[in-house]
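Can't paste images in this forum, so I'm doing it all in text. The chain is below; anyone willing to post the predicted structure tokens underneath?
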Amino acid sequence: MSTPLDDALERLRVLIEEVSDKGVAESNTMALATAGEDGTPSIRTVYVLDIRPPGPAFFVNERSGKARQLAQNPRICLCFFSPAVQHQVIIDGFALRLEADESDRLWHLRPREAQLGAWASDSTQEYADTVQRRMRAREQREHSGFEPVARPDNWCAWRMQAQRVSIWHAGWQHLRSRTRYESDAFGVWNVVEANP
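Text version of the structure:
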């Protein structure tokens, strides 16, 4: 028997498929908002993978500012928006770091170029050297050949533990409807049709 969270995440999966079917590249990207212990917000785009309860999964370079913020404050927000389907999905909750075997499984769902880019990225350096980054990506491409690209040890999967999902439906100008799926203190999910 499906739960309201199952239904909300299924709607997100369908929206992403619709965007992909319209030929939009990287349709499975969402904006990820985090904040460190000082409360300063930070936002960036991530690939979301394996969208199922308790929430979508995404990857983090453990040497990055994003990883530091997640360690200080695991509360996050994900936002999916595409003009192609005129829908927006906002998910609030907190992030849980996944075990290495699950990270390995999810790693192979990432686009190959994103995997190679992860090998080339060095978040410990303040300034990026584009030439060096491209050389590292090329070296990893040659090293991997046609074999799967191995997951770097410092790249780990995280999964969101969703507590609220808001789906803003297509509509004329700002006359949209919104469905809110929300978990109470006991983990019981409720569905509310809300004003936009």
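The beta strands are 29-35, 41-47, 49-52, 55-61, 75-82, 87-97, 155-168, 178-183, 189-194. The first helix runs from residue 4 to 21.
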